[in-house]
Amino acid sequence: MVAVVPAVPRTARDLRYITTVLALTVYRFAPRGDDLQRRIHDLIVTKAQPVPAGARMLDIGCGSGSLVVKLAKAAPDSFVTGVDSWGRDWEYSQRQCAENARIEGVADRTAFHQQSAAAVDGSFDVVVSCLTFHEVGDLESATGALVAALRVVGPGGRFAFLDLFGDPGHYPSPDGVREAIEGAGGTIEEFGGLADALPLPFPLRHPKVLGHALLVVGSRPRH
Ligand SMILES: C[S@@+](CC[C@H](N)C(=O)[O-])C[C@H]1O[C@@H](n2cnc3c(N)ncnc32)[C@H](O)[C@@H]1O
User: Fold this and answer.
1) How confident is the model at residue 18 (pLDDT cuts 50, 70, 90)?
2) Given ligand 1 and candidates 35, 66, 84, 95, which is best to mutate, with the most ligand atoms within 8 Å of its CB?
3) Residue 14, pLDDT score
4) Methyltransferase type domain: which residues (predicted)?
5) Three-state DSSP state, 142
6) Which of 14, 19, 43, 208 is the 20 to 30 Å CA partner of 109?
7) How many domains does the chain have?
8) Which pLDDT value is given to residue 220?
9) Is 15 inside a domain boundary?
10) What CATH number corresponds to the domain at position 196?
11) 2 CA: nearest ligand 1 atom
12) Closest ligand 1 atom number to CA of residue 61
């Protein structure tokens, strides 16, 4: 789910180490391994609560639709939209999302649109996003994608965002992220390391994997 960008290997030993780390990372995320992707999505669904009756929800950068399906199943009278650019860098697709929703019995309460995170619009009761803002290439910064996401959190709405908010390569600083959220009208209720919420086995705590991943949960006041 997250690309590990290795240093340039200098020796065969470096190469073996990098290959092992990559294989282990894939194993940690996979359903047949440590199933971390599912556990992260479960955590986000928990953090999105309470979901009001008849809620309209949005997942920005929905990938395979897995989190959309979980949100829809957790709130049976909700409607959940997933948007993603589905570019070449990832193996996910709109068709895969629709098929997953059909298999899980939530096709009538979900919709998937090809749309950039830079261009999201509307007003939602719950907005979530998982490891996407730092990927958005059509804005100047990941902070821009975060601010765009906050704009579609309706009055009284909630948000739960997981991203590499602690990575200086993508965000100015955790305090800068806090300021951006508050400047966009969000009230922060929780802001902490993913590793504090879920045990992250080696090598997932590494800064090039999820070591910089922070979860921010909050709401937009009604007035
Ligand atoms: C690390 S994956 C995460 C996928 C999903 N959120 C999950 O947790 O399984 C990053 C996702 O961001 C999407 N993405 C990249 N750039 C995007 C953009 N400009 N707008 C919307 N989605 C984008 C990719 O297509 C990919 O699905």
Assistant:
1) confident
2) 84
3) 85
4) 58-161
5) helix
6) 43
7) 1
8) 97
9) no
10) 3.40.50.150
11) 1
12) 22
Q: Look at residue 24 and tell me if it is in a domain.
A: no
Q: In the 8-state DSSP scheme, what is residue 61?
A: S
DSSP letters for 183-212: HTT-EEEEEEEHHHHS---TTTTSTTTTTT
- Please check whether residue 165 lies inside any domain of the structure: yes
Average pLDDT over the chain reads 94
Q: Which residue, chain included where needed, has tokens 């953090």?
A: 47
Q: What is the DSSP letter of 144?
A: H
pLDDT at 8: 64
CA distance 22 to 36: 15
* Domain that includes residue 103, residue range: 35-219
pLDDT tens column, 53-93: 999 999 999 999 999 999 999 999 999 999 999 999 999 99
Residue 4 has pLDDT above 90, yes or no: no
Tokens 């629709």, residue located: 98
Distance from residue 187's CA to the centre of ligand 1 (Å): 25
Which structure tokens are listed for 207? 């800064």
